[in-house]
UniProtKB/TrEMBL annotation:
Record field: transmembrane: 255-282
Assigned protein family: Belongs to the cytochrome P450 family.
Gene3D superfamilies: Cytochrome P450 (1.10.630.10)
Protein name: Cytochrome P450
Annotated spans, Disordered: 1-25
Classification lineage: Bacteria, Pseudomonadati, Pseudomonadota, Alphaproteobacteria, Sphingomonadales
SUPFAM superfamilies associated with the record: Cytochrome P450
Keywords per UniProt: Membrane, Transmembrane, Transmembrane helix
Length: 423
């Protein structure tokens, strides 16, 4: 009897053919099924209104734009979701919304690899997520509390007597990145180089420059992977390298795509959140005092600040036709959930721009959601919580340095930089 051929799903790391085709961009690439009335060209990440105050912009989207619209721009045409309910649905319904090739990073079609597990749909996604979950689940991250608290105080020690600091470089980046490097099993003395690489990758929209930076990062990670093969340790890279789910070791390409994704995902997002929070704290001394006067409410404070200062977006591709909020979308359409705008949805969060530390608990989308919720969410919450506790204990009074011009650079990770503070 003939053996049935193995059918490899399109969204499978063993499939050498990337799915879907490269993203379309520009007004001449709008599909015929998109109503003209829903087409916009916000050019959001480069829009002067957005760059002046992105969170005012996110909030204003609910008044100025349809809840679902089709954005035409230089970094790719896509449907945009701004309602909490719609994004919540998209993040939790993989039967409609695929994560395949949903990240913006270019790869060689002749040597294609998927970023794991973010670009893999269920049920295969669980295979990869289960490898690293034991290192980042709520119980596991608690072992980092002492390290995070000591590191926070060491960083404060280095600046407190100066009466000023550049918060990004002196606290916001080193705090989460140092913890992340320990978690990964990577050398601390390369911290600044790693940050430079990731910033270069995430803050450029030039495919040629992205490809060059990805090669530099990839070459380093290949050497790190080989080192972990020979010298296993307790870090995440070693765990990925030596994983064998269901007794089957991962392929070289699976390992590379997994390590690459975790590397870039772990270095740039928490610092932006910290920058946003401290910028707000520096301008709102009364709210700082409120937080310090109610230390037992720290978890709710962190959650509300994460809602107000979400920093990322979530991309998907439709696997089948779908009507959402009366809008007809077709298989192959790209979808972006603008998570910060969704967290300002007035139908879910009344007075959404108000920072309310006693707001009734509702699910926020700061870390996306569903099976692809951020792997590092629990660790990020702990870092923010401890960072706030230790900083406000030792530097309770601070402000933005007089004359400083605070800017938000165009980036898929939203945060002000630099952030000079004085006390």
């Amino acid at each position: 009897m003939a053996t049935a051929p193995t059918i490899i799903p399109e969204n499978d790391p063993r499939n050498p053919v990337p799915f879907p085709l490269p993203r379309a961009a520009g007004p001449d690439q709008v599909p015929s099924h998109v109503p003209e009335a829903l087409i916009r060209s916000t050019n959001m990440l480069f829009n002067p209104e957005f760059l002046a105050d992105p969170y005012a912009y996110f909030s204003g989207m609910h008044e100025k734009l349809p809840p679902i619209f089709y954005d035409v721009g230089r970094i790719g045409n896509a449907w945009q979701l701004t309602k909490h309910e719609d994004a919540f649905f998209a993040l939790r319904h993989g039967e409609y919304f695929s994560s395949a090739s949903s990240t913006p990073f270019p790869r060689d079609p002749s040597d294609y690899f998927y970023f794991l597990p973010i670009e893999i749909d269920p049920p295969m996604h669980r295979k990869y997520r289960a490898i690293v979950d034991p290192l980042v689940n709520p119980q596991a991250v608690l072992k980092w509390e002492e390290r995070i608290r000591k590191l926070s105080n060491d960083l404060i020690d280095s600046v407190i007597e100066k009466g000023e600091c550049e918060f990004t470089e002196d606290f916001a980046r080193p705090l989460p990145v140092c913890v992340f490097l320990d978690l990964m099993g990577l050398p601390q003395d390369m911290r600044d180089q790693f940050v430079t690489w990731v910033v270069q990758l995430l803050k450029t929209f030039d495919p040629t420059q992205m490809i060059g930076t990805m090669k530099v990062i990839g070459d380093y990670l290949k050497s790190a992977i080989e080192d972990k093969r020979k010298n296993p340790d307790e870090g995440m890279i070693s765990r990925i390298v030596h994983a064998a789910p269901n007794g089957e070791p991962l392929s070289d390409k699976e390992i590379f795509g997994f390590v690459f994704f975790v590397f870039i995902a772990g270095i740039d997002t928490v610092y932006a959140t910290l920058n946003n929070i401290w910028y707000w704290l520096a301008r709102n001394p009364d709210r700082r005092h409120e937080m310090m006067a109610d230390p037992d409410n720290i978890n709710a404070q962190v959650e509300e600040l994460l809602r107000v200062f979400s920093v990322t977006f979530s991309g998907r591709i439709l696997k089948q036709d779908l009507e959402l909020r009366g809008v007809q979308m077709k298989a192959g359409d790209r979808i972006t959930s603008i998570l910060p705008a969704c967290n300002y949805d007035p139908d879910v969060f009344p007075e959404p721009r108000k920072v309310d530390f006693h707001r009734p608990r509702k699910p926020i989308l700061a870390f996306a959601g569903g099976v692809h919720s951020c792997m590092g969410a629990h660790l990020a919450r702990l870092e923010i919580k401890i960072g706030l506790q230790e900083w406000l204990k030792r530097i309770p009074e601070f402000s933005v340095k007089p004359g400083a011009e605070i800017k938000y650079p165009p980036s898929a990770v939203v945060g002000p930089e630099p952030l000079p503070l004085v006390w």
